[in-house]
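Database export, one record per block. Field names are fixed; values are copied verbatim from the stored entry.
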Amino acid sequence: MRTSDFDFKLPEQLIAKRPLEERDASRLLRWDNESFEDGDISDLPSLVQAGDVWVVNDTRVIPARLLGQKPSGGKVEVLLLEPTGTADVWTAWGKANKPLKEGDQVLFSDDFYAEILLRDGKCVEVKLVAEDVAKAIESHGHMPLPPYIDRPDSEEDKKRYQTVFATHDGAVAAPTAGLHLTPELMTDMEKAGAIFVHITLHVGPGTFQPVQVDDVHAHTMHEEAYVVSESAAKNINQAKSEGRRIVAVGTTSLRTLEAASKDGVLQAGAGRTDIFIYPGYRFQMVDALLTNFHLPQSTLLMLVSALAGKEKVLKAYDYAIEKAYRFYSYGDAMFVTKVES
């Protein structure tokens, strides 16, 4: 299996650079057998089957992009990845005109700076220093928009690059399928018989990293932290045992469900996963997926292809391009069900 098997050409104008005015105004592509059907996100209640469990990722995106300078004046960008467990020390990516080295200081404001403790390639360990580091990050940090949104972040992004159910700080990228949901739409889905269950996976920047090898099997995934509560595991396992559908809202929810399952049973607890799902994978938990349109040759496109069938998914992408669907994080969505093997 080759990475190039998952390529497609996307016109630049179909990349959604900004969100629509309303969260639930996006379009929704789905298919019945071999024919595609155009709809809207507001159609989701009609897709609910009574007793469905719709699993959402309640991670919260932190303003992890810090822009500063060295005392000499050289510009530096620090992207916080995750805390190390030592007070106010983070693993991060650092970018500067001259490589950062141990002992360097990066000034973000008069009362907020970082000291480089360790460098390992692109990654650095930084000690953040401020009277209240969490407040300093919120005050001075920028939303870490994906690289294909080539514009500065705005006040609008602080609200819209965040799901309405975001709860647990830790992501540096949004679980984008969840961006479409509103409290009103979720209520309508519940009236139609959906049950919403929350899990947490702190999405890392590796989700946007291109696959650098053409042999799919040689690719190594980034690692991310997740938490599945006892109640979430109980509700999902009960639904599965009763033959009710498990619908993942987004690829991050899907990856968590599959990574945390053993022999078809979802295990409660905290963990880390670098699960890589591509065609040929045997799904344990997930029956259907709500997802945005993904980058060419990406691990996320491979994941969707594993669930719904590569040829079918690539045909759907061709159709979406022909019909001018909006792509990527702020784009439109598709609803797919697991192909029976």
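Remark 1: The chain has a mean pLDDT of 95.
Remark 2: The two ends are 18 Å apart (CA to CA).
End of record.
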